[in-house]
Amino acid sequence: MVKPITLYSHAKGPNPWKVAIILEELNIPYEPKFLDVVEMKKEPYLKICPNGRVPTIEDPNTGITLFESGAIIEYLAETYDTKDALSFSTSPEKFYQSQWIHFQMSEQGPYFGQASWFARIHPETIPSAIDRYFDQIKRVHSVLDRELAGKEYLVGDKCSIADLSFVTWDLLVPWIFGDRIGEYDAEKTYPNFYAWNQRLMARPVVQKVVKDREEALTTGH
Amino acid sequence: MVKPITLYSHAKGPNPWKVAIILEELNIPYEPKFLDVVEMKKEPYLKICPNGRVPTIEDPNTGITLFESGAIIEYLAETYDTKDALSFSTSPEKFYQSQWIHFQMSEQGPYFGQASWFARIHPETIPSAIDRYFDQIKRVHSVLDRELAGKEYLVGDKCSIADLSFVTWDLLVPWIFGDRIGEYDAEKTYPNFYAWNQRLMARPVVQKVVKDREEALTTGH
């Protein structure tokens, strides 16, 4: 009997929802705990996550506490996806899976994050910074589009944690571009990327998590 | 007999040198191939790495081609560090190792990279963007400093790929800050971080790679 995993989360941030998708896909019971930004930056949370950000998980089944969403989804797959339904545990696929998760973590997440910062949060409007990061969003999509030519999924022939790791940041693209979303027709410019994203969005679990997120945005938890 | 691994590299970028450190530490033979930025963005390199960046490795021993430095060093450790001299292959340490490599990939690399962009490359001088990223460099160091209180290394009781993954970006901090380096006394502000970085920098392999990098910066290869 698997005991519920605690997921430290935040309604707005895309990274805890990325972990929620993998938990739901793998049918792992979990309890989200929503923190506000002030709580993340102080004790007792800093003892659990010295980075002061979410997500972090506490898994009572293994005693492991882990932060960084990329590391968490790899841990969940390795520990709970023992039949490789949503992941790869053998070479070479497991290394390609790791490669795309690192690409998500080191390029999609940071560039999309900086785009939202300069387009929506930074106190000063800096057109050259906004343009820089909007261009990087398109560049990240161009890389995925190139890779997905003639393929349904990034690795092997099934949907895996590598694909699903991209969903929650892509969901925010219309919000990031705001009034300027008309400038970017992803469907026309990057059709392989677009079709893949639609395929992922159509999964019942992704739809459920999108709903959970909307509810959390309204209620705060 | 291990055949040499091809390492697609660039004299300036910190990420290929991160991989070089792990190759040298594990005594894996390798041949660097230096590309300029134009070559990275077109065929035939894009076939090897759709992201158009370095590093990428080609390993003739396994037939694997892989990009993203975080994925590459995990692959090298898993494939060649069979005695766990520089890495962890059992739970929970292997998951903590993955956590810190993801932190390096998703926070240290991107924030230090954006700091260099706005401080040294962006055509316009934007003080609020430079300040933002200089603050993030300090914040990343503060996280490492907190974690390293009373510890020699990030995971377990030995130096691992998790620690070494941070070295090459930290090496660039004086260049990133430039004239403003006087503002930031890492030794005084984050002594645990500073002592750890000195410990890593003192390793013969790290010193060798620092020299190789200086030579490549002079000769271009």
Automatic annotation (TrEMBL), chains A, B:
Transferase found in the keyword field: yes
PROSITE patterns: GST_CTER, GST_NTER
Listed Pfam families: GST_C (PF00043), GST_N (PF02798)
SUPFAM superfamilies, per the entry: GST C-terminal domain-like, Thioredoxin-like
Alphabetized InterPro entries for the sequence: Glutathione-S-Trfase_C-like, Glutathione-S-Trfase_C_sf, Glutathione_S-Trfase, Glutathione_S-Trfase_N, GST_C, Thioredoxin-like_sf
Residues of the GST C-terminal domain: 90-220
Keywords tagged on the record: Transferase
Transferase as UniProt keyword: yes
Molecular function in Gene Ontology: transferase activity
Residue ranges occupied by any GST N-terminal domain in the UniProt entry: 3-84
Family membership noted in the UniProt record: Belongs to the GST superfamily.
PANTHER family: GLUTATHIONE S-TRANSFERASE-RELATED (PTHR44051), TRANSCRIPTIONAL REGULATOR URE2 (PTHR44051:SF3)
Annotated protein name in UniProt: Glutathione S-transferase-like protein
Source organism: Lachnellula subtilissima
Gene transcribed to yield this protein: OpS6_1
